[in-house]
Write a structure and sequence with these properties.
By secondary structure, the protein is an alpha/beta fold. The chain has 22 helices and 24 strands. Helix 4 packs parallel to helix 6, helix 16 packs across helix 17 (445-458) and helix 21 (554-560) packs across helix 22 (571-593). The longest helix is centred in the C-terminal third of the chain and has 23 residues, at 571-593. The chain is globular.
Amino acid sequence: MTNEMSAQVSQAKLSSQPAVKIVGVTKIFGVVEALHEISANILPGRLTGLVGPDGAGKTTLMRLMAALMAPTAGRITVANCDTVRDSNRIHTLTGYMPQRFGLYEDLSVMENLRLYAQLQGVEPNTHQDIFERLLTFTRLAPFTQRLAGRLSGGMKQKLGLACAMMGKPRVLLLDEPSVGVDPVSRQDLWKMVRELTDEGMAVVWSTAYLDEAERCATVLLLNDGKIEYDGPPDKLTATLKHRCFRLLDPKQERRIVLSRALNLKSVCDGVIQGNSVRAVLRKEATREEIDALAKEVGAEIAPVTPRFEDAFVDLLGGGPGGTSALAERMEPVNLKGDIAVECHELTRRFGDFIATDHVSFQVKKGEIFGLLGPNGAGKSTTFKMLCGLLKPTSGGAHVMGLDLRTAKSEAKSQLGYMAQKFSLYGLLSARQNLEFSAGVYGFDGATKRERIEEMIEIFHLQKYVRSSPEDLPLGVKQRLALACALMHRPPVLFLDEPTSGVDPITRREFWTHINGLVRKGVTVLVTTHFMDEAEYCDRVALMYQAKVIALDTPDALKRSVFKGGSDEPTMEDAFIQLIQSADAENATSRATKAP
């Protein structure tokens, strides 16, 4: 950072005045009250997390703070400037990075920086110094000539952050900057933001990753347009003391144990964690039911430290329960043999670029197989080839015993595919998208109507059937996309980052359905950047630089990086360690080959 900027934000840090003051703010869109009498202070030199379920009002609040819209009632000031009266001044005091940041993908990194400098009125004679500072800060200096459309997800977010910081803002507003970003890139973003707050800048970080919220100095938790909690995350987490447990190594299948735990009246939340089940008791509940379940399934029960995510779900009334209405209506999958999906030496080149390099694995019937890796590792390309959407350069793949080279149409009818980028039709309503999907899979007449109404009911889409997908909250969009992918009840399901950017309650709803489907014999292949979701997988393949560098169960991968000590490694620890080990091996190999 420049000396001028450091002095500016350091002065703000010393100030006892809030960087942003929100007083009684209400925002109404037509008949919808998005925010109701919100009041809060955003302090300089601190990272404030903004969390809540989809549709809670987080993005609306950020846009109000950025003076992109005016409140219906109440007042917001930024550095004592009113967002309505002094809106032009607010645009120089704040940097705003929306969820869908407007990078121009056909422009290079440097061209995007020049464009945003002009848009924000930065003096031309200062451009070079500012660009050098931002490129150094984001570590994008080696990539100035690369087109933004060819950057990885993490690099795009870093460029977006650089553009948002162009005008030396006093307040930086980041709306879910880490959505779709791998753990290594998330760490980079986190370090950059920490540096800014250390210098005194006020940063508001909206996030669906509650491990990120746990690191914030303060958290604002919104629900239905109201603030449910305002304070340090650890204070809320402390309310769950003596209420969190793990059922270790149950003798019964872990997905069954989770379902049974979630259906107990005394349990408000639960997740799979490797070969164990984590459960959270409701307030005032006793241990009687969970102890009885542990004994019945042959598991050792042990208390564990609460997490902020536990407190989040508890505060919002608990998760969705352990029974999938969708899975309950499905017949068990019939498959000759045990292997549902397999690929051998699967390779895809785009010109000189190798996107997938001799990838081989098998997925058993009724298995959840996770495909993890940094942005640009080749996961989505592999998925598209396995779905018959992309022709391999070499190698082959089979789905339900069908060769994708010779029986592509027949194989496609056996699978459901939910793409990474939302791929429904924006010109059609939610109901029309469901009708289109039903038609594609050959349904008509009463069967078509019955299947559509079933999906609307199961995925709680009644309120949204007339809306365009583009107008829906992200969690509802993803529900609609999953409903379309499951319309024909396929025996194999490909989910490419299905829960990216959605809140923990919606993620639990998705996984209740996934776990239920797998118990009926459905095979699921999933990519995700939520490392806690990888714990649900029976096995995980880690891709890096187009190759599979590790393949094992989640617990085995975690053990592979466990070097002793008291702390149990997480899947994120394993992910980062394995990537770093691969980098070290590659560096050694290059040094050995060098003349």
